[in-house]
Amino acid sequence: MLAIIVTSHGEFSRGILQSAEMIFGKTQKVVAVPLAAKEGVEDLVSHYRLAIQEMQPNDGVLFLVDLWGGSPFNAASRIVAEHPDQYGLLAGLNLPMLIEALALQQQPLADVIPHLERAAQGGIRHLDLQMDTGDDDLL
């Protein structure tokens, strides 16, 4: 089973994981690791290593982070670089991405990452009331 670390600036990671579990159900080998205001990359690296040790992953680790290039991303990229065949990293965390990740924990990491990219992008949509879609269920 793929272990998942959900991480963000502040408490967003805890909140989105709580929301995902409301929809998906209770999870295994998934942990939220928030970045506190006075913490930095080195603190996160330590938090990540502890989370990995506690989850004891058999099939790899997937980091889902809020922003490309932010501290959670930079800390995770260090750890992923140490285990590039077993660990993966995706930025742009959103709820559709996380729910799909939970549903795909039994799949190989190499298959999960491209699927999650599509799920995250597909979760971004807009409501255009000017366009007649023929779907009367919208309102």
TrEMBL record:
Annotated GO biological process: phosphoenolpyruvate-dependent sugar phosphotransferase system
Keyword annotations of the record: Cytoplasm, Kinase, Phosphoprotein, Phosphotransferase system, Sugar transport, Transferase, Transport
Instruction: Show the Gene3D superfamilies listed in the entry.
Output: Phosphotransferase system, mannose-type IIA component
One cellular component (GO) term of this entry: membrane
Q: Does the keyword S-adenosyl-L-methionine apply?
A: no
Q: Where in the cell is it found?
A: Cytoplasm
Specify where it is mainly localized. Answer: cytoplasm
What's the superkingdom here?
Answer: Bacteria
Q: Signal peptide: which range, if any?
A: none
Task: Report the PROSITE patterns cross-referenced here.
Answer: PTS_EIIA_TYPE_4 (PS51096)
For the PTS EIIA type-4 domain, which residue ranges apply?
Answer: 1-124
Q: List the NCBIfam families.
A: EIIA-man (TIGR00824)
Output this protein's name. Answer: Mannose PTS, EIIA
User: Mind giving the lineage of the organism this protein is from?
Assistant: Bacteria, Bacillati, Bacillota, Bacilli, Lactobacillales
